[in-house]
Amino acid sequence: FGPLHFFLAFRPPPPSPSLLFFFVALLCCILASTCESMGKDKYSVILPTYNERENLPLIIWLLVKEFEKCNVDFEVIIVDDNSPDGTQEIAKQLIKVYGEGRILLRPRAGKLGLGTAYKFGLEHASGNYIFILDADLSHHPKFIPEFIRVQREEGCDIVSGTRYRGDGGVFGWDFRRKLTSVGANFLAQFLLRPTVSDLTGSFRLYKREAFEKVITKVKSKGYTFQMEIVVRAQQQGMKIGEVPITFVDRIFGDSKLGANEIIGYVKGLLYLVFTS
Fold this sequence. Notes:
The structure is a single chain. With 276 residues, the chain is of the alpha/beta class. Helix content is 49%, strand content 16%. The chain has helices spanning 3-10, 17-39, 56-70, 87-98, 114-123, 144-154, 175-192, 208-215, 224-235, 259-275, and strands at residues 42-49, 73-80, 103-105, 129-132, 158-162, 169-171, 204-207, 240-244, 246-248. The strands form 2 sheets. It has a 7-stranded mixed beta sheet, with helices on both faces. A two-stranded parallel sheet has the order 6-9. α4 (87-98) links the parallel β2 and β3. α9 (224-235) packs parallel to α10. The N and C termini lie far apart (79 Å).
């Protein structure tokens, strides 16, 4: 009477068909629930534009390509501030190409500020995740899969692109422009002590609920909007991750950065110093 005889004598009876069916059904429900929760994710891209006629077709093509590569649901919301160069006409043609469910045009009466453009776009977004980036091709959509990966793995409320960490960098700027950018970021880092390395960057991914919560605290409308939203997010204990990106200077069109924007940046920075 060896071990084999003992096993054969005392092995448990096979499960009944009803019990087996129960466990199979339970497993199917768990898998279906997991797939459904993943399938519910939708990414809304808010794309503010002003005189981006040449850049818009290419940035839209790149966005569609990257999101399809990720196999996720998405939409692109073009918030145009009454561009005189025909940007809205190009947007309407792109809607015909990609469909109204993918590309949405939401025009405004004029230039009302970058921060208000994001707030306006959020009102028309249907996704539970929000991407913001520049329409001038300075932010390449090829980094989108990495943003999504970091957010999912680390559970971040915000994922911010950085030019100043890891493989991040800037190409196409002259020395004066690079010095201005580095100086502005260094000053912000010194005065505000943020947890991110690129406080002035504008390539980001937000959980919708986080974006909706923090944006109500933001008063800035111009380029300091990006700084303030990180500062307010930190005050509310939100988790912020980073993805190194390569920033490339625009090929078509003119830069929106001028003396008024620089003065506004300094004013906004001082405002944040005394309110954070």
